[in-house]
Amino acid sequence: MEKGTLILRIILGFTFFMHGLDKWKGGIAGTAGFFDSVGIPGFMAYIVAAIELIGGIALMLGLGVRIISILFAVILLGAIFTVKLSSGFLGGLELDIVLLAIAVHLALSGPAKYALSSHIKAAS
User: What pTM value is reported for the model?
Assistant: First the structure.
């Protein structure tokens, strides 16, 4: 179970890190414009991209696992209900639903023993 949670944590963290990096590298202003076009205030693009980038790194390291997983779940729910829902399951929702399930699992299970936060607590 612990190793499975580690794998899920690394995959989710890396996926969100790459999405955050892409938003910054691709021009965050364009992402802000896209957010505006789907009814989300453009400034939220900066917040989402920062959460994805920094949260992705933290999640891979095993820091703030529950909080970051909840933030990722909120981001995914926002994406599902503002953009992806109209695309249907195949070619639209399936990846977001899988990532949401992973985020919820991590929020409920916590960091597990292979997380940096577990080692920091043990050393205290």
Answer: 0.89
